[in-house]
Amino acid sequence: MKWPCAAEACRRPALWSLLGQCEQCYRHFCGEHSVSTSHTCLTTEEIYTIYMSGDQSKLRELNASRRTAGEKMISVLIDSIDGNALRERAETLRDGMKCTVSLPSANQAYFNMDVVGGRNYHGSIVFEDGKTWLARFRLPNHNSPPVEERNFDRRSEFATYRFLAEAAIPVPRVYDCADDEDPSNAVGAGYILVEKLAGKPLAWQEANQAQRDKFIRQLAGIYAQLEKHPLGALGRLQPSSTGQPEVGPAFFDYNSIGRLVPFGPFDDMNDYYKALIQHKIGLIKTGEIAPSAPLDQYLVYRSLLDRLPRNEQGPFFLRHVDSRDANFLVDLDYNITGIIDLELAIVTAKGAAFQSPLLLYDLGELYHKGLSTPSEGEKRLATILQEETESYQLSALVTQKLHFRVDQVIETNPEDWKQFVGVFGGWWKAATGEQVFDWDMWHREALEKYGDGGFTPSAA
Asked: 0.85 exceeded by the pTM?
């Protein structure tokens, strides 16, 4: 059980999906209580309806409510940080060089992308010689995992930056890392101290063709460089006692008292997929995912198990999971100054690691039409890898999306029914070579083949 349901007297586990994670009260609920009278916050669907309605009065009220909740959450984090201890730690790491620590207030931080980005809050540390670090803290928001997993993610990001720096990949240097709820951490909240890089987040849609081409050439060089640094197992990097990063677990379950149960590292890709999908089937049984359509989710997972991509047994390579344009920093001339936000990076099979980054995908086509047509950016990356770096195998891999499709099917849930069917249908066509996918026909055949697994049919 990752989280218990917050409803009074309820002993069921809370949902893992956003449906059970309230961004207004920051509590977690099971499938029944997420939309019950015991939880009075607006539902995700109600919030979406207000934004689509254009009703300015309701929009102002909603935005004010969300800001109040967001600022309260940021304030909780700031109150847990000892700024003086942070300053002293930074000065110690720089052999006594004096510095000034700035922790922007909740009012200053909310919706300020220089301070708060997705999961994290950033304070600044400016030294007397002009050098600047960032102090990176995990926000205690609605999708923040329990403390053991938060600490694992933070250590993984720290080890990943160290590994990439050694591999001569443009990433910020990291100087220190500390856990949440660690008595030896005088700062209080867990943190990473990381170099502040020059540059701004890449805005791919605003770049002209020459700028895009320059970026893709550099990306090809990064891919070719990463290929020179294989690893021996599939999982996520962690610091080791030797000082060198080592491959640790790939993902986690939770036992009945909320403690982590690690899975991995793995020796081959199919063992990883099988363990992950069986783990997800277990979560259907406990009601932690797919409460609205458990049978449909079960049949989708059983189908995946029968049609996994060609197995790979290593070597393995690092993959940036969140490879959106905002996580590539560039200067005014479109030179890449750094790659950031690596807290979910995973060491995986070559066919998965060297897919194109998300910023080059036509996600609209992928989700809404179920197609896998390579974008112009993907084709350009493949051409440069082949002609300019002579990385012929990587050139063939970057336009393939089969691993990405499998990952999306595993993580997409039936709360958004249209997307759920679309994502699965796209994978099915890619995996089988079929030109058309019919959900009802597939469902009848899957039910006959796999049975109902003890799950009740949905009304979708």
From this structure: yes
